[in-house]
Specification:
Elements lengths: L1 E5 L5 H10 L3 E5 L3 H8 L10 H11 L2 E4 L7 E4 L14 H11 L7 E4 L7 H12 L18 E4 L9 H7 L2 E5 L2 H11 L7 E5 H32 L3 H8 L22 H8 L5 H26 L6 E4 L14 H13 L3 E4 L16 E2 L2 H7 L2 E4 L4 H4 L3 H4 L3 E4 L12 H4 L6
Parallel strand pairs: 1-2, 1-4, 2-3, 4-5, 5-6, 7-8, 9-10, 9-12, 10-11, 12-13
Antiparallel strand pairs: 6-7
Helix pairs in contact: 1-3, 4-5, 8-10, 8-11, 10-11, 11-12
Bound molecules: ligand SAJ.
């Protein structure tokens, strides 16, 4: 079996490597030449548990190679980004570009599977584009062609959690949406090669909406926790204790408040639903706003703390969008730390075990990167932004005498620091 994976990012590369491990011949295609070079030398350009060993293995066995140009194959998997524009409208340009290059090498019998998170209807748009570019091939489910199609087209969203990608690629259930039932069955046969979880078939549109629903569900639930944290702050109650206690109820399961929601999925995908049905999504939109607003609240809280201690040095602990990963995309921690650096300049130090240099957002601010031990020794104020294991290991004794803002609730023994008492304007 020859497989092409379009896009060698956080999803495409692990997917390509896992397929290559089954013995299939896999070509990973990426527009970035340096990524292609890195993969062909058996190395990886992203940090993900066990990925380096897997990629070096399949590259040295010759089942995975990378290129900037697509080649003929039996199955094409599209795993390119679907960002949104400034007005929150989804941009499927990369998907359509990938489909255009696939069209050039497509032949009867091939299967095309879209994995990128996409607005409902995108798979049909891919089908329509292929029909236009390749009038010689009969596309599925269009113009009365029924099931008598030459190619199969399906949507099968990835659902893996960064940090657990290689495990979840295999163990998670998959939702496989075909343009027609026959397309879904064709794609099912492909996933069965490497997925241990259940593979459930449906329509392409239902599969597209399912993916968006999963991430919107999580966003709404995190928004609930973040809203509770604002209320608890105002009432002088420890939100973490309240959530722990409420979660003892058999049907309550509240998620964790934090400095906001980051990453390229949960902070993005709900907007695809809002864009599709603006009048029917007040809850999903508000959840997005609550989670983004939580970041502004943390910035205000931290700034009040720093203002109250003139000359004190500030340690911002963490920049990643969540614990124990090197991914800073849409990171609320990065937003908080860079806003503080812009305002307080060289008083601000950053601790981030997953960064060798500070990201561009800190250019010209005077902030600098230090290690965790130096922060413990030299910072008077500690703003905990990411629940990295490294930070969990700092005992109360090493936090003694510091002003601490723990936005993740990883230090339950930390006496609360009330900025609200100090600055009444921070009240809701
Ligand atoms: N977060 C909280 N409180 C929580 C849980 C998360 O503040 O209780 C924050 C995190 O710190 C982070 C953000 O939310 O900033 C998102 O983190 P996450 O771990 O919830 O999710 P992602 O973005 O790493 O991965 C999600 C997953 N989706 C769901 O759990 C429904 C993953 O399964 C998807 O494959 C992935 O999005 C994706 O690619 O869509």
């Amino acid at each position: 079996l020859n497989v092409v994976v379009m896009g060698l990012g956080y999803i495409g590369l692990p997917t390509a490597a896992v397929i290559a491990r089954t013995g299939a011949q896999v070509l990973g295609v990426d527009v970035t030449a340096s990524v292609v070079e890195t993969v062909n030398s058996g190395r990886v350009h992203i940090e993900e548990v066990d990925l380096d060993g897997l990629v070096s293995g399949v590259v040295s066995r010759g089942t995975l190679r990378a290129a900037t140009e697509v080649a003929p194959a039996d199955v094409f998997v599209i795993a390119v980004p679907t960002p949104f524009a400034a007005d929150h409208q989804p941009d499927i340009g990369y998907v359509l570009q990938a489909a255009t290059s696939i069209a050039a090498v497509l032949k009867a019998g091939d299967t095309i599977i879209l994995e990128s998170t996409s607005p409902v209807g995108t798979t049909e748009q891919v089908r329509d584009l292929l029909a236009t570019l390749r009038p010689d091939l009969r596309v599925p489910g269009r113009g009365g062609s029924g099931e008598g199609a030459d190619i199969a087209i399906a949507y099968c969203p990835e659902r893996v959690l960064p940090g657990r990608i290689l495990v979840e690629l295999i163990d998670n259930d998959r939702v496989i949406g075909g343009i027609t039932p026959r397309c879904a069955r064709k794609a099912l046969g492909f996933y069965r090669r490497f997925v241990r979880g259940a593979c459930v078939t449906t329509t392409a549109r239902a599969a597209e909406m399912t993916k968006l629903t999963e991430n919107a569900f999580r966003d709404v639930n995190i928004a609930f926790a973040n809203e509770l944290s604002l209320v608890a702050d105002r009432l002088g109650v420890d939100v973490w204790e309240v959530i722990r206690l409420a979660n003892r109820h058999p049907r309550v399961n509240i998620l964790s408040p934090g400095p906001g929601v980051g990453g390229h999925c949960i902070a993005v995908d709900p907007w695809f639903l809002v864009a599709a049905a603006p009048d029917s999504t007040p809850l999903i939109r508000t959840a997005r706003e609550v989670n983004d607003g939580k970041t502004d609240h943390v910035i205000a809280q931290a700034a009040a703390m720093i203002d109250a201690m003139p000359g004190a040095s500030v340690g911002c602990m963490g920049l990643a969008f969540k614990a124990n990963i090197d991914d800073f995309r849409e990171s609320p921690a990065l937003r908080v730390a860079s806003a503080l650096a812009a305002r307080f300049g060289e008083r601000v130090r950053i601790v981030e075990p997953y960064a060798d240099v500070l990201p561009k957002a800190f250019d010209g601010t005077g902030a600098r990167l230090i290690d965790v031990d130096t922060a413990i020794e030299t910072c008077d104020i500690m703003i905990l932004l990411v629940d990295h294991d490294l930070f969990r290991s700092i005992p109360l004794q090493e936090r003694q005498g510091k002003a601490v803002l723990d936005t993740r609730g990883i230090w339950p023994d930390q006496p609360p620091y009330s900025t609200v008492a100090m600055r009444p304007e921070l009240r809701l």
